[in-house]
């Protein structure tokens, strides 16, 4: 779960909490390494339940919405969705980067 509040950004992914104060603590330069190490126990290609876990316990309905909106690149084998882990990491990096930009330019932004 990634939420932005007036005073800080709170990221909760797979039991790891990160707090970043606006403008005072930038995103780590190697967020990809951080996220890769967080998700090392997952296979290179995950299914919907694994995607939900990786994104902080979102519902499967929310996961399907993300995929259907092409927010996370994926493919299907038959009726089963398959999501490359590196695409999930790229999606999270883009969220973290956009959150950083939003909070440094507009302190009244709330993102869900």
What does this structure look like?
This protein is of the alpha+beta class and 112 residues long. Helix content is 40%, strand content 22%. The chain has helices at 31-38, 48-54, 60-68, 85-105; strands at 2-4, 8-13, 16-21, 45-46, 75-77, 80-84.
Short structural summary:
The protein has 112 residues and is an alpha+beta fold.
How many E strands?
A: 6
Helix amount: 40-55%
Q: Radius of gyration, Cα only, in angstroms?
A: 14 Å
Give the termini distance in whole angstroms: 8 Å
The parts where pLDDT drops under 50 for at least 5 residues are: 1-26
Number of discrete helical segments: 4
Tell me the series of helices and strands, N- to C-terminal: EEEHEHHEEH
Give, in spatial order, the strands making up the sheet with the most strands.
1-2-3
Main sheet characteristics: 3 strands, antiparallel
**Relative strand content:** 15-25%
Q: State the secondary-structure class.
A: alpha+beta
Kindly report the average pLDDT value.
77
Q: Estimate the global geometry from the Cα principal axes.
A: globular
């Amino acid at each position: 779960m990634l939420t932005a509040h007036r005073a800080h950004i709170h990221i909760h992914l797979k039991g790891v909490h990160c707090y970043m104060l606006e403008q005072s603590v930038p995103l780590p330069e190697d967020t990809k390494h951080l996220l890769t190490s967080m998700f090392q126990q997952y296979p290179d290609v995950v299914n919907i339940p694994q995607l939900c876990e990786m994104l902080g316990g979102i519902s499967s309905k929310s996961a399907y919405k993300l995929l259907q909106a092409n927010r996370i690149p994926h493919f299907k084998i038959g009726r089963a969705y398959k999501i490359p882990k590196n695409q999930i990491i790229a999606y999270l990096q883009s969220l973290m980067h956009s959150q950083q930009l939003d909070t440094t330019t507009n302190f009244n932004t709330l993102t869900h």
